[in-house]
Design brief:
With 478 residues, this protein is α/β, with parallel strands linked by helices. 54% of the residues lie in helices and 9% in strands. The chain is built from 19 helices and ten strands. The structure holds 6-phosphogluconic acid. The site of 6-phosphogluconic acid (6PG) has 13 residues, from helix 8 and helix 11.
């Protein structure tokens, strides 16, 4: 029987969908699952695609079914299960074969796994896949890290299954070892910030203007036809429009306001902190999810502290505020994306990856959760200025910041005056205002540090004298 082009282990929803996508695009694929029943069900339900699927019951059979050098995708739960599957697989693979982890792995694990195979003749690809279940089935965005040579072996299959934006593949090799999983992590960090800012805008509409879920849905629907056009705005419109079949009320009103998180947002914030790059939008979003989970404490605090008055918002022209909200969301997005790309720029230096910013923006334009019109503009901005230190200084985005930051300022102050929490939007404003100011206030921090710890400072006139005339300092306070 003709051998398969690629193999896949792990037939839960994401793995099954990816396998069906691979088969549908004309590639032969061997599949294996730890419990064989799942393999039987998957094969039975694959319909016409069965011709291109080789269902395997043993690891030996699975490996023998794939054309060498064999690429094997592992699609199991991130963490220890990946190591377990790798251990089992290694015994049957031969030199040149490629193990591909397509889960949401921590890129540090990916680097470790990549290094662990160095003397075995095998190689490792850490592959970020975004787009959820639908994306996996019909066209995800694919971020690949590993050797360029190993990518060449799988490029044809991967580009055949990836999403397309105006005919261009949303799949690329981004660098060695953990590069693909790092970029996927930052994608998710940005996804967190994007979702949080949308939720903050929803909070102003619901708790400030008193709009119903349906009215909020209509506003998001309108915005989705403009510059905010994106998958996340589109699904916000959709979920806000649905009613709960049990109570008949808007579905969102029946959902407990505690957000889950599996770790990628937190990893993005941690790595940004490790490298000393501000990612305040992502940090605010992660913190907001954590705070959301303290449901009981928040309910108690409301009874103790009460809610601030939201009267002032009533004096604002409603249509003006709604149009400001649209621009403020755009401004907030610019902040979050600028930070995400700045984190990747620094990581590229730190881990020696040469991450291609224009390519990353390009492969995020379709297939992934943060796909949007906006990413096409980012692609053009980085293509014109690939080495820009920060997205906000590229001509297009500098103009956009100037156009939208007035609205962001008004929205953040309105939210503050009416007790509506907008931590991510406010962080974007603080970021812009700090980043654009050539002379900040850290001179005072340096003076304080020198005072209490003799940490020294640089002088603005370059004079080689690094301590202040602080004298005995706190004597007066003794
Ligand atoms: C994607 C998603 C996907 C998943 C996240 C959700 O790009 O397809 O980001 O990876 O939905 O892991 O993460 P949380 O559960 O942490 O929100």
């Amino acid at each position: 029987m003709e051998q398969a082009e690629i193999g896949l282990i792990g037939l839960a929803v994401m793995g099954s969908n990816l396998a069906l996508n691979i088969a549908e695009k004309g590639n032969r694929i061997a599949v294996f699952n730890r419990s064989p029943d799942k393999t039987d069900t998957f094969y039975a339900e694959a319909g016409d695609l069965r011709d291109r699927i080789i269902p395997c019951k043993t690891m030996e059979e699975f490996v023998a079914s794939i054309r060498p050098p064999r690429p094997v995708i592992i699609m199991v739960q991130a963490g220890a299960p990946v190591d377990q599957v790798m251990e089992g697989l290694k015994k049957d693979l031969s030199a040149g074969d490629i193990i591909i982890d397509a889960g949401n792995a921590n890129f540090r694990d990916t680097i470790r796994r990549f290094d662990s195979l160095k003397d075995s003749g095998l190689t490792f690809i850490g592959m970020g896949v975004s787009g959820g279940e639908e994306g996996a089935r019909h066209g995800p965005s694919i971020m690949v890290g590993g050797t360029e040579e190993s990518y060449k072996r799988v490029e044809k299959v991967l580009t055949s299954i990836s999403a397309k934006f105006k005919g261009e593949d949303c799949c690329a090799w981004l660098g060695e070892n953990g590069a693909g999983h790092f970029v996927k992590t930052i994608h998710n960090g940005i996804e967190y910030a994007d979702m949080q800012m949308i939720a903050e805008i929803y909070g102003i509409l619901r708790d400030g203007l008193g709009l119903s879920a349906k009215e909020c849905s209509d506003i998001f629907g309108k915005w989705n036809k403009g510059r905010l056009e994106s998958y996340l705005i589109e699904i916000s419109e959709l979920v806000l429009s649905k009613n709960d079949p049990i109570s008949g009320k808007p579905m969102v009103d029946m959902i407990v306001d505690k957000a889950g998180q599996k770790g990628t947002g937190k990893w993005s914030a941690i790595e940004a902190q490790n490298m000393g790059v501000p990612a305040t939008g992502i940090e605010a979003a992660v913190a907001a999810r954590s705070l959301s989970s303290f449901k009981k404490q928040r309910e108690h605090a409301e009874t103790v502290l009460g809610l601030p008055s939201a009267e002032q918002i009533k004096s604002i022209d409603r249509n003006q505020l709604i149009s400001d909200l649209e621009l403020a969301l755009l401004a907030g997005k610019i902040g979050a994306y600028a930070q995400g790309f700045a984190v990747m720029t620094e990581a590229s230096k730190e881990f020696g990856w040469s991450l291609p910013m224009p390519t990353i923006a390009q492969i995020w334009r379709a297939g992934c959760i943060i796909r949007s019109q906006f990413l096409d503009d980012i692609t053009s901005a980085f293509r014109a200025m690939p080495d820009a230190d920060n997205l906000v200084i590229t001509p297009t985005f500098a103009a956009l910041v100037k156009e939208t930051d007035g609205a962001l300022r008004r929205v953040v102050s309105t939210a503050a005056l009416n007790g509506l929490a907008v931590p991510a939007l406010a962080s974007a404003l603080g970021y812009f205002d700090s980043y654009r100011r050539g002379r900040g206030t850290a001179n005072l921090i340096q003076a304080q540090r020198d005072f209490f710890g003799a940490h020294g400072f640089d002088r603005v006139d370059g004079v080689d004298k690094h301590h202040g005339p602080w004298g005995s300092g706190l004597a007066d306070f003794a």
